[in-house]
Amino acid sequence: MKKSTGSLWLCLHLPRLALDALMRGQSRGEAETCIAIADTAGNRRTLICVNNAAAAAGLQTGLTATTARSLVPGLIIRQRRLRLEALALHSLAGWCQQYTAFVHLPGPPPEPGAGRLLLEVGGSRKLFGDLARLHEQISRGLQALGYDMASGGSRTPEAAMLRARSGSQKPFSQLPLGLLELPGPALESLQHAGLKSIGEVLALPRDALARRHGPACLAYLDRLTGRQPDPLTPWRSRPRHRAIVEFPGAVENTQALIFPLRRLLDELQGVLRGRDAAIQSLTLTLSHPDHPATQLPVKLAAPSRAARHLESLLREKLDALELKAPVDGLQIDSGRFVPYSARQGDLFDSHGAEHEAWATLLDRLRNRLGHEAAGYLHCRGDHRPERASQLLSEPATEAVTTTLNRPVWFLPRPEALAAQPNLLTGPERIEAGWWQREMRRDYFMARDAQGRRMWVYRDLTQPACWYVHGYFG
Amino acid sequence: MLYTELHCLTNFSFQRGASHADELVKQAVALDYAGLAITDECSFAGSARAHLACKELTDAGLVDPGFRLIHGTEIQLADGPKILLLACHHAGYTRLCQLITQGRMAANKGHYHLTRADLETLPPDDCLAIYIPPRPVPDPDIRLDELAWMHDLCSPESLWIAVELHRGQDDARHLADLRALAAASGIPLVAAGDVHMHKRNRRALQDVMTALRSGKTVATAGTDLFPNGERYLRSRQRLAAIYPTDLLEQTALLAQRCEFSLSELAYEYPYELVPEGVEPEDHLRRRTEAGAAWRWPQGEPPKVREQIERELALIHEMGYEHYFLTVHDIVAFARSQHILCQGRGSAANSAVCYCLGITEVDPSKRDMLFERFISRERNEPPDIDVDFEHERREEVIQYIYRKYGRDRAALAATVISYRPRSAIRDVGKALGFGADAIDALAKSLSWWESMEDLKNRLMEAGFDPAEQRIGQLMRLVHEILGFPRHLSQHVGGFVLSEKPLHRLVPVENASMADRSIIQWDKDDLEALGLLKVDVLALGMLSCIRRCFDLIAGFRGKRHNMASLPAGDTATYDMICAADTIGVFQIESRAQMSMLPRLRPRKFFDLVIEVAIVRPGPIQGGMVHPYLRRRQGLDPVTYPSDALKEVLERTLGVPLFQEQVMQIAMVAAGYTAGEADKLRRDMAAWKRKGGLEPHREKITQGMLERGYDTDFADRIFEQIKGFGSYGFPESHAVSFALLVYVSCWLKCHEPAAFAAALINSQPMGFYAPAQIIADARRHNVEVRPADVQQSAWDCTLESRPDREPAIRLGLRLVKGLAEDAGHRIIAARAQAVFASMDDLIHRAALDRHARKALSRADALRSLAGHRHRAHWQTAGAEILPGLLAGTAARETDLPLPAPSEAQDVLADYASTGLTLRRHPLALLRPMLRKKGALTTTEYEQQQHNSPVTVAGLVTTRQRPGTAKGVIFLTLEDETGPLNVIVWKDIYQQYRREILGGKLLLIKGKIQRAGEVRHCIALQVEDGSAWVGQLETASRDFH
To answer: Does residue A420 sit within a domain?
Structure first.
């Protein structure tokens, strides 16, 4: 607990958190695409953040998604991701600990899509010079990480938050009363009575105010002016780091991933500095539309927190990688933090070693033959034989049963037959998949010269061609 | 080998069937089937369509008379097997209707619930039952159990087991299993196809349906989809290769037993309208004579007498007495409750209907030919729509239910079909497009554009039409267009019957509580000879009745629609000057711009005016010819003497639906029946096409009779244009009367008319703000809403030696609940309010009501100004019982009064209108600097001169007939003006035009006679200026 008296508070107000948390992987220059973040309330979907290009095209927050699209046809609209915003705020809180030990995450500001952090900087001024310089440093840092930011400093946390939102240097009492963080009806009621500034509100008789807007309203004003203390709980840092960015359009070469990756690693470096920690492992995950993600794990020989070092390790991996699909997002996950200066300790976590016996076998097989060589066979509900079963690296969560008679030895690639085989039963007609690649086949049970029972088909689009697709046990 | 398909779904088995009923019938005939059973799931909705398709083919001689259309239904019992029930004869059909009704009524809209117990009352020999064995069978015992139950249910000779083979893996085994089952149970097997589409190329669409049903995409629906496309009407050769012959031959046996045809349905009118022992003919005559004596106390003119006799004879000949008596009964009820109503439609404009009080169009005063509307030859069923006051129609509906009971009265269905936008949404969803992409796609096909533009619009929206998925989307959207999506209730079409309706047609729940709908829509009803009465709601009737009430209260003189003087010059002068804001029909922009050109001087001119400005005549290119002829710019000519008779009234230009039908008969040799078919097809072609055969026929017929191709083409284009909007003269006449009445009232009683119009909101084209602004321009004094003065509705207040003033009602206070308003009025009736506390206490106003009143400045008389009203009401407390009135007194705060601009803005925010200065008047000094003219000044400008105008945007319109053009109405302190924005300018200033509340427009003025339009060239959004008024208002004074 920390008392507000005698302290100095700095509020970092992030007006476009909902956008930046997702899209901070873009450099300013390339952000020419109009991007907006939308949120749904009831059945209205409205914009809560727009990037500079979209703002320049005339879009503002509050427009419905439909209207916005009719105004700017190429507009990319992404749904708000609260989880990612929370993740981003936690990363930033860790990053801010470079400047002060006391960071607080207050509730979100009234503006939709915005976020904020509170820093107690009374003590930090000694280290970083005056408030303006500290602010300058933080501001540059956040900008480099891809965040839009406004800040405000004051003696009380509420006043610092109000200042940060106001974007004005006017004396406090002259600021419009709409900035007060009171419930909407209370603000509206005060405005309707002809009041305009915060000063006018503070001058009202206290009992008249309490009668109209309740004791909570007075309590807020008292916290704002410092008449009442405002005890806050400090944010507690976490033992691992995770950060996620997305791209507005899919990226097709790994070079384009370097810029966003660098931002994520810079942030990680700041977080580690704030904790005075380092890491020993890091995984970079590339996400693809319609494809499973690509994971690039890195193990460090010695603990490190240098962004450039981590970057060079990951670049090697990226250079060696052949992209199987375009990339639409990045994620980094660090291993557990270790003390920065500490010597290498017990690196290998022994608790995870107790696997079931056959899982161990699977791991061995995989180690020897490659990860994809062994897995779990899983039935899927699909008429197309190629898609009716699947090799999974993890056991499936839900099982699909089938009553169809299908061969155990299923050939991943059907093999052409020279002539029509000796048919036993059939046909079973399968026509499906027109939305991807149309398949129209008549399947039969057949017997080959060796007496093996085969599963064969005739392609209905080329009725003369026969293929074998599997063998029964 | 004869084959009858016994199991076939149409697209009325929603999200299952992938073909229209007529497609299925035609294909079954083409494949030389011996018959086809339509077996929609717990529904007969597709049966009527199938019946019509079959009848058409039979009439055209395209189908063997032995072809049997069978009506049945597929039912999945909640606790048992899936079965098919086929109607053998009328009694069986009736029982199935009953069963479906029961199942539908037991579930929410769109679903049904039937159990084994429900079927046990089914008489064994009226229906055939076919057991559909589950496949694959989880447990053979289930089959035996189900079969045993079926066995108990039916007589053995009415029960079969369906064998449905679709080239599945286990077909052979399935057949063998069923053979064994048949042998064990002694129940015969029969072949059936479980048909979901008429041709196999609907497979993709059928998959889309399945995906929609399961809420998945086609890619994720997996085994919910059928494994292949075999569920179509297969050729007999194919069937023979799959099914053993005995199973196919068995179908003939069933078909033979199913003799029922929908043409056997016999509809009977409710009989209670005629007293026992009296012939309907005599009863109708008695009523008519009584009505004639009421209408003409001094005796009717001989011309009218003659007409009554002619009409009664015709009505008797056609057997329509009950219909007229039914409508009369409903109208008489409304009259007894002082609910204003008026009938319209082909039969409504008769002398008999005038006598019966169904219509107010006086046959002795109007130059109308009534034979036009009811015709022996056309053999159309009589059609009367009755409009009632929109807020009181529910009373009429409740009366109908009371009188006939829920089982004899039901609403007709309206089939909601796929339109471009819903088609894109559903197909897009099924193909796995994301929500955003679907939004963008649906957006790219705006409502005023046709499918043909789709490709271009897709490219504009950034989609590649060449891409496979987009190609599939376009193809499937095209296929699904016009498919029924669900049944909804018709706006007011009641079907009344002597016998319970569910003996004729299944009845199901509507989404509105306590409403039931039958499964057929109005076309189906008409084709099957069922009669409906349309009980519709019309806002203008509420307005007119209220206006009569206000006048009666203020002047002590009661008008009614028939009593107003006809042919009033002042009224027609007003109409010619397009001074028609708020009146019926001719208030829209398009109508108003037509008035000075058309210059209506008599009643029939109004009839034409009502009919003329509609999508139909414009699309057909026919408005201009009429106007030009009327203005004497073009000579009046007729293509032939025969057509002169048809077209003389409209100067040789066809304007009414009846004329188009007559042209088809006179000039193209249509029979009366064919002309009626044309009318029906005209109404339906947008939905499903089907006009092309008429093009050939009309062109052919007209060429044979010596007309030229050009005229034939134009006639045909107009028929297409008429589409579903085409206006029959019989409706236009009734509407024209409302036009005349509302215009007369606006002209002679402007205050009462404006007050009545506001009290009837929401209705019409204009909001209260425009109605009040218009009234004030006509020197009507309007006084603000105030708790000390206002009633709930707007009222008239007298002024010494002057016309009355309007006192705005509390109904205009946005957010004030009606009961709170009535509490204020009741409390005030006891004593005027002494203070704010007195008001709040005695009217028990909660926080919400207090806020609404202070926002609307309705507390001015108590508080002095808005700011004080807000402060005082926010601090008010309602203390219970003894403590009442003891709330702590506060010292007054010195709150500043709002500026004029603040008040004006607050007025707009709270009531949508202001009685203070117009905001544009406050902005005028600044607008002057920008060179903007007022509306009055603008109207003086020469044709083609450049102008700058500014105003609040009151309407934005994108008429379907004017591609890409947008019409704006701007309003400043001197009046409204009209702006046209052409497509390219619109594209350039889209944001300003769609988003701006106040626009500054540079353009040029176009004048044509009295009509002026500003053609926009540059648009500036001035919405922010209004806001700046509040903070910097002094700069503008």
So the answer is: yes
